[in-house]
Amino acid sequence: MKPEVQPNKIVVFSGSGISAESGLPTFRDSNGLWNSFSWEEVASPAGWKERPEAVLAFYNERRRDAWKALPNPGHLAVASLESAYEVVVITQNVDELHERAGSTQVIHVHGQLAFARGTSESRRRYRIDNAPIALGQLCEDGTQLRPDIVWFGEEVEYMQEARRHVATAGKVLVVGTSLSVFPAASLVKAARGRAEKVLVALETEKPPFGFQFVQGKAGTVLPILTKRWLAEAGQTS
Ligand code: APR
Q1: Each residue of 147-165: pLDDT tens digit?
Q2: How far is the CA of 122 from the centre of ligand 1 (A)?
Q3: pLDDT (tens digit, 9 = 90+) per residue, 23-64?
Q4: Closest ligand 1 atom, CA of 149?
Q5: Which atom of ligand 1 is nearest to the CA of 220?
Q6: From CA 98, how far away is CA 236, in angstroms rounded?
Q7: Among 92, 126, 155, 198, fewest CB within 10 Å belongs to which?
């Protein structure tokens, strides 16, 4: 039995493109991170085993930049929807710009820069804000601390919960993601036939089935789209 669709529920599934206008690089665009870094070296268990100092340096720099960044009109538009809708943000991003913009329900499926965790089974997690992680810095069970980020080949978090949210949403907004990394990208398939489905990106090969593609920058398109959705819910100012 499929769960009930809630017309007043919006799920926003975001990727690095929504943070591009806050000065944070995406991964696969022309100035994307994977053009200047090898993900095998800095974002995989094998890279961590081989050169942990390179992995820590990569994420220490990203943590510093993300901490200094400010939410842009795209993040703010998403947060504004909470005045008339139940909104769940499912993000692949490891920055906290959705929360800083005021979004109250944010699920990070690829981890968060502001946290570190131990490397033992217990996976103890620590909030570190913008502090760097150093080699030799141990967690309380004596294992090396690492960034609390999901690396390639590692298990993605909260997928079941995320899929359930998408499957019960009356509106699904996908923004700033190339939908090229799985299993996160498979979440769009859980969107229901009767749901309004919108994809916002600079370009896309083929929008997922049933999605209306709106080409443009999140900071420009989202304020217009969310204003329309708020008006639909009777909110005009
Ligand atoms: N507004 C809207 N979309 C934008 C903007 C913008 N200002 N700038 C770029 N984009 C779009 C691009 O068109 C592209 O489709 O954002 C997308 C960025 O795609 P990727 O670089 O592939 O990033 P993302 O989809 O977030 O990557 C997914 O891959 O590397 C891993 O774990 C990492 O979470 C990440 C995952």
Answers
A1: 999 999 999 999 999 999 9
A2: 32
A3: 999 999 999 999 999 999 999 999 999 999 999 999 999 999
A4: 32
A5: 1
A6: 23
A7: 155
